[in-house]
Structures are given as C-alpha cells and as structure tokens.
Amino acid sequence: MLSMQTLFTSLLLAGSTFSAQVAAKTASHNGEKIAPKVFIVSMFEPEAQAWWNIPEFDLLSHNITIPGLSPLYPDVHCTKDYEVCQLITGEAEINAAATVTTVAFSPLFDLTKTYFFVAGIAGINPKRATTGSATFARYAVQVALQYEIDIRELSSNYSTGYIPLGADYPDQYPTSIYGTEVFEVNANLRTIAANFARRANLSDSTAAKVYRANYANASAEYKAATLAPSVVECDVATSDVYYSGNILGTAFENTTKLFTNGTGDYCSTAQEDNATLEVLLRAAVHKLTDFSRIIVMRTASDFDRPYPGASATYNLLYSDQGGFEPALENIYHAGIEVVQGILQGWEKTFKKGVKATNYIGDIFGTLGGQPDFGPGTAQALEESGAYKKRSLESRLRRRG
Ligand SMILES: *[C@@H]1O[C@H](CO)[C@@H](O)[C@H](O)[C@H]1NC(C)=O
Ligand SMILES: *[C@@H]1O[C@H](CO)[C@@H](O)[C@H](O)[C@H]1NC(C)=O
Ligand SMILES: *[C@@H]1O[C@H](CO)[C@@H](O)[C@H](O)[C@H]1NC(C)=O
Ligand SMILES: *[C@@H]1O[C@H](CO)[C@@H](O)[C@H](O)[C@H]1NC(C)=O
Ligand SMILES: *[C@@H]1O[C@H](CO)[C@@H](O)[C@H](O)[C@H]1NC(C)=O
Ligand SMILES: *[C@@H]1O[C@H](CO)[C@@H](O)[C@H](O)[C@H]1NC(C)=O
Ligand SMILES: *[C@@H]1O[C@H](CO)[C@@H](O)[C@H](O)[C@H]1NC(C)=O
C-alpha cells in the first residue's frame, strides 16, 4: 500500500512539475498563478473563433498547452495581460467535464475570483425566443438523464418514451438521484449579464427572417419565434442527444419544470452545460472556484421543433434556418458587452462579487443552503445511493 501511495505521490509530483514547466515556458507570470477575471468557455472551433481577431483584445496572445485538454483543442488562450482567457471544451458532456476539470484543478490558475462565462450556440424553443437571440440561464437541466423506451414499444398511454430514473411515468419526480439533474447559478449575476448584453445590436440574417416567418401561422404560442433576435432570460437543457421535434421538445419542457419544481423555463438546448457546471461545483467545494461567478449564455442557432405543418426530420436535417451565422456573431456581440461590463466594473462590483440571493448549486446542497428544487438534501442523498439505500434496492429490483 505504501508503495502504491508513493507511486501515486510521485505521479502527482511529476504531473505538477510538468505543468510548472509548461507554465514557465508559456505563461512566465513570474511564478505567479494566472488569475483571469473572465474565463470564456467555448465548446467548439466556430464558437471560439467568434472571439478571435476582435478589436477589444487578443485571446491568442498566449497559448497555454495543458495535459488533459481536448486533443482537438489542447490550449487555453489568454490575452496579453491574462485578464481574459478562453478554454474550448470539445462537444457534449464528456468533453465538457474532462476539459473543465483539467482547467479548474490546474495549479497554473488562481480561479477564485474568475467569472466563468459559458458562451455557445444552442437549439431554441420557439415558444420562448427566436434564432439569433441570446439566452441567459438560471437553471441548467440534464433532461435526458432518464430511462428511455423506444416509442414503438411504448404503452399507448405514455406521452413520451423518457421516464425519470426510479419513476414509473414521465411526469413523476425521479427517485434515483445522480446529482447533476439540475444546477442553479446566480440569478442576480444573470440579470446583470443579460442587461450588459442588451446594449448589443444583435445580428440577424435574411434567411433567418424568412424561415422564422413560418412560425407565424401557428397560434400565439410561437409569437416569440417570429420576432427579431433579443436577449432573453430563460433556462438551458443539457443533453448529449441532439433532439428535434414537438414531442421531445415538449417532453423536455416538462422535464425541466419537473426537475426544477416548476421554476425552470426551458428555452435553449445544448450538450455541455451541466457537465461544465458539475465540475465548477466540485472545484468550488475545494475553494478553487466561486460558484456564484458563473454566467451561462446560449445564442440560438436553430429551432428545437418544426413550424406547424413541417416534420421533425425536416427541422433537424433539411431546413435552412439561417440562424447559425447570426448565433455565432451574437456570441461576440452580446458576449463582448458582458466581458467588457465585468472588466469595466471590476473594482466597483465584480472583484468582490455579486451576492446571490437565490439558492445556487446542485440538488444535494453540496455548497450549503437548501435547494429550491429536488426532494431536499437528506432525501436526495438517500436516493443517490450514497448511503445505504432503499432506492438502490428499488433500482436493482427495476433492473432485474
Ligand atoms: C496561438 O495559436 C493560434 C492558432 O491557434 C495562432 O494563430 C497564434 O499565433 C498563437 N499565438 C502565439 C503567441 O503563438
Ligand atoms: C444541467 O445544467 C442545468 C442548468 O444549466 C441545471 O438546471 C441542471 O440541473 C444541470 N443538470 C445536470 C445533470 O448537471
Ligand atoms: C397505462 O396503462 C397501464 C395499463 O395498461 C397502467 O398500468 C398504467 O398505469 C398506465 N400508465 C399511465 C401513465 O397512465
Ligand atoms: C447599435 O446601433 C446604434 C445605431 O446604429 C449605435 O448608435 C450604437 O452605438 C450601436 N451599439 C453598439 C453596442 O454597437
Ligand atoms: C406558413 O406561413 C408561411 C409564411 O407566411 C407561408 O409561406 C406558408 O405557406 C404557411 N404554411 C402553412 C402550413 O400555412
Ligand atoms: C407535457 O405535459 C403536459 C401537461 O401535463 C401533457 O399534456 C403533455 O402530454 C406532456 N408532453 C409530453 C411529451 O410528455
Ligand atoms: C420538489 O418536488 C418534489 C416532488 O413533488 C417534492 O417532493 C419536493 O419536496 C419539492 N422540493 C421543493 C424544494 O419544493
């Protein structure tokens, strides 16, 4: 055992020595840790490029290679003064978790005062906003963390094939808790960030205008889809599965409501945010990050469901929605206002932080406080299988 431990320790040391060398070579911050005021979280190249070659700052001044980052995106990028940095997770939940873990636990950085700014494109619920819009989330909900039965084998009285873990029906609260179902971030900070973004002139495209007009035939339900792009405060769903259509769209609207006890307002859908938030939460437990300093912005690139009369397949695969370009442009237009707002207000407001008056954290209350969603800390832990469980037995029973 001792030798295992020694081996482990020396591996750790080897790891940090390597990191230190990387730091010395690329960061040379006089041995000081890099303490960015804003860390932009991009998910793939187009989202990252939205921030490059802009007049405000040069994120490509420092490329810092860190072991553990995505093979596609091996570097963290920082401005000359290291005030703003950028990481690129790679797409979907596994990449997001692994990349953010690498950065959040890296000895290269002091992230205790850093604002993490998730800025990516997303699908959009036409009931809540239109393509090109910038949405700011309070809740991130892992909507596909459920059982699934293919619709062709489903009893006819089920409204969807997704059934919460440990439940019997789609609308039942899950009784088997993994802990990543819902994350709640600082609502006051969200509003400040959204107001910064409202200073921007958002891009639109002719193709997007033409396409969104199709939603006008519907009832008043899709009014938001037909308007010009805007800044909207509404929540994000995380799912590795890139879904499309009315039934899944509605099903995950329902899941968001269910998991957040009625407060969540599903509007955008992407593949990473819960994974990113889980890591930032784990780092916050060790005082490496501050969970009250997270902003989740998603700009809308495509609708999550078709306009009336069109099919889900058409919506997903064949439609030219015209939203991709404006969504990428608006990462910059809306996002730069947020970054500049934080930098300009640093001494007055952001250095000391924006106090959260809502609950922030996960379903377990890991960071303290009582979640305003979920069954309560004690019950959630019990249902997680972390302690001896009834729910573990029932899970096994269900599996068996
Ligand atoms: C950082 O990498 C980018 C390409 O990813 C490159 O354009 C840029 O010149 C690099 N910066 C430095 C300082 O080497
Ligand atoms: C995912 O993130 C959303 C908010 O962005 C949160 O409401 C949800 O709880 C998170 N779920 C998981 C499984 O992390
Ligand atoms: C569906 O019908 C079955 C019986 O065929 C019944 O046991 C079950 O409770 C029903 N489920 C729902 C969600 O109503
Ligand atoms: C938005 O457009 C208006 C009118 O053209 C202009 O006055 C304003 O400076 C623009 N705002 C930004 C942030 O570019
Ligand atoms: C919906 O509206 C669009 C644009 O006004 C029109 O071209 C289209 O024919 C309408 N579709 C239906 C099914 O009414
Ligand atoms: C969503 O919830 C509504 C209201 O309870 C219900 O009528 C609808 O069938 C649900 N949709 C799906 C796809 O589960
Ligand atoms: C959330 O809803 C569940 C299921 O209805 C309930 O057991 C739980 O007490 C609610 N939690 C809060 C914080 O209201």
TrEMBL record:
<dbReference type="InterPro" id="IPR009486">
    <property type="entry name" value="Pur_nuclsid_perm"/>
</dbReference>
<dbReference type="GO" id="GO:0005783">
    <property type="term" value="C:endoplasmic reticulum"/>
</dbReference>
<keyword id="KW-0813">Transport</keyword>
<comment type="function">
    <text>Nucleoside permease that transports adenosine and guanosine.</text>
</comment>
<comment type="similarity">
    <text>Belongs to the NUP family.</text>
</comment>
<keyword id="KW-0732">Signal</keyword>
<feature type="signal peptide">
    <location>
        <begin position="1"/>
        <end position="19"/>
    </location>
</feature>
<dbReference type="Pfam" id="PF06516">
    <property type="entry name" value="NUP"/>
</dbReference>
<protein>
    <submittedName>
        <fullName>Purine nucleoside permease</fullName>
    </submittedName>
</protein>
<dbReference type="GO" id="GO:0055085">
    <property type="term" value="P:transmembrane transport"/>
</dbReference>
